[in-house]
Specification:
alpha+beta, Alpha-Beta Plaits, Trigger factor, domain 2, 3 domains, 5-stranded antiparallel sheet, 4-stranded antiparallel sheet, 12 helices, 46% helix
Length: 436
């Protein structure tokens, strides 16, 4: 097999492959003979179909398969011999004018780029930190109490106030006409918790059981209901029932209901702190990891393989269509989604993937088995039966691969932070938790 390599532009290469026809024909004959021993055709016993009939029926498809296989093998061997790291699938086309007894093909493809990472000592990375305060524990306790609150009906003359659960009938009209979703009976919501638009809550707050009121409501321009967004409606609301909320006390009974081992308030607060500290650790790691990755990409030079970017774009479009389908969108698999919508994000992902891979290779930052095991155990620690969660991860190669990827990213993060100029910044617990 003769091989020549030509550089077209940047990462694009062209290999010329030459295959002797007799090798192709020999393999075709061999496969047809094997096929003849098992093929079933009307009028013939198995294994007794004449070769001429087998060739007539299956010759084209077998020849096509052999050509694909042999050209693929030749390309792989040639790329390996030339020490080329091929990115994506090659485009292979037969050339005309080949010498007698030979077939010649041009294979055009891309190679992975050389990644140059500058000295990380010149990179600046902001590293944030946050502490779990007593106020954060108090806030979490309030959430837990609200989740377990009970309601009792207020006196008939008691007005609706913050935290009350109200049961109402309402009907809205725009220009005197009812609209979809504008009417309900026996509807419940909690006053002051943002379940309704502010104008609606303000109107109901202070009303008494049995009272009716008409009030105007302006739907925001960005309201999720497109048919009413930006319009003004008139609502008639009647309060049917008002119930006051009762939150459980922070005591041993609450600790017991939450399954705290020692059933004390101190034990409850300690358990909340442990869970919050675990969440803080993961959020800090994620945020600092993003800062590291941004700094890493900013300090790297490389060309992007178009084929890798397109593969990432295709994958993201497929994911978007799957999401639309899950939401019940009709013909989601045919939804016209332009490549350009995802291309910037795809380029960012491919660039980051190549830079990280080079840093991992050059500095031996691969995930070690004990790191993977430790990470899984940490993930499982917050569950009631950690060992079941550990087994769940260990039983699936895809889940294990995801954990391995996270551990590698953590190794990269620690490595970069050990080399770069780190700017420490303390942020509040609330600021950390409010960011997605």
């Amino acid at each position: 097999m003769a091989v020549t390599v030509e550089t077209l532009e940047k990462l694009e290469r062209k290999l010329t492959l030459t295959l002797p026809l007799n090798i192709i024909q020999s393999e075709v004959d061999s496969r047809l003979k094997r096929l003849a021993r098992t093929v079933k055709m009307d009028g013939f016993r198995p294994g007794k179909v004449p070769m001429s009939v087998v060739t007539q029926r299956y010759g084209y498809s077998v020849h096509y398969e052999v050509m694909n296989d042999k050209v693929g093998e030749a390309f792989a061997a040639a790329a390996n011999e030339a020490k080329l790291r091929v990115a994506g699938q090659p485009s292979i086309n037969e050339k005309e004018g080949a010498p007698e007894g030979e077939l010649t093909f041009d294979a055009v493809f891309e190679v992975y780029p050389e990644v140059k990472i500058a000295d990380l000592a010149g990179a600046e990375v902001e590293k944030v930190s946050a502490e779990v305060s007593d106020a954060a524990i108090d806030k979490t306790l309030d959430i837990l109490r609200k989740q377990r609150r009970t309601f009792a009906q207020r006196a008939a003359d008691a007005p609706a106030q913050e935290g009350d659960r109200v049961t109402i009938d309402f009907e809205g009209k725009i220009d005197g006409e009812p609209f979809a979703g504008g009417k309900a009976e026996g509807f419940q919501f909690l006053v002051g918790e943002g379940q309704m638009l502010k104008e609606f809550e303000d109107a109901v707050r202070g009303m008494k059981s049995g009272e009716s009121k008409t009030f105007p409501l302006n739907f925001p321009a960005d309201y999720h209901g497109k048919e009413v967004a930006g319009k003004q409606a008139d609502f008639l609301v009647t309060v049917k029932k008002i119930e006051a909320a009762h939150l459980p006390e922070v005591n041993e009974a609450l600790a017991k209901s939450l399954g705290i081992a020692d059933e004390t308030v101190e034990g409850l607060r300690a358990d909340i702190r442990k869970n919050l500290e675990r969440e803080v650790k993961f959020r800090l790691l994620a945020r600092n990891k993003n800062a590291v990755m941004d700094a890493l990409v900013a300090n790297a030079e490389l060309d992007l393989p178009k084929s890798s970017v397109q593969a990432e774009v295709d994958s993201m479009i497929e994911g978007a269509r799957a999401d639309l389908k899950q939401r019940g969108i009709k013909d989601a698999d045919k939804a016209p989604i332009p490549d350009d919508l995802f291309r910037p994000q795809a380029e960012k992902r491919v660039r980051l993937g190549l830079v990280v891979a080079e840093l991992v290779r050059a500095n031996e930052l691969q995930a070690k088995p004990e790191q993977i095991k430790a990470h899984i155990e940490e993930l499982a620690a917050s569950y009631e039966k950690p060992q079941d969660v550990v087994r769940w991860y260990l039983s699936d190669k895809r889940r294990m691969a995801e954990v391995e990827a996270i551990v590698i990213e953590n190794n990269v993060t620690e490595f970069v932070l050990s080399k770069a100029r780190v700017v420490d910044k303390a942020i509040s617990f609330d600021d950390l938790m409010s960011q997605n």
